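Morning run. Coffee first, then this:
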Amino acid sequence: MQLPEQPVAGQPDPTIHDNARRFLAAINDIEKPTSYYDPTELPAVGDMPPVPQPGQPPMSQWATDASGVIKAVSVASLPIGGALWLVGQVDPLTLGIIFGSPAVAALAVARLVAKVKDANQATQPVVQNYYGTVHHDERTVTSTTRGVIANTRNHH
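And here it is:
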């Protein structure tokens, strides 16, 4: 006995033809252009109001730095808030470790940065070995450039 949803024996399955037809239609759609470039010139000045651009809004360098610090502090406050939530469930020694370890880590990093900065600023000894006749010229050359068409004069 043959069920109605089964194809007739010896005949191709119609769902295979439907799937193949949809697959070929999808391939043909790929070859169609997916964008359009409008070649008309844009007006240099128009009557449209300015549109806010995506990203960080324009602001001074100080404001940008301050907003970065505020973001960092707000992210750093999350563990503290979580620790305060756990106050009733954690003993005081563990809370002391939770609150004290970021401060200790910050102090250690600050001292490391200070040491590296001091090491980079220390004057390095200059060792120059000369063999034979040496002429050492200590003249200083200053240069001034003035005018619409650059005219450079070097003075000894």
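The first strand starts at residue 142 and ends at 146. Good start to the day.
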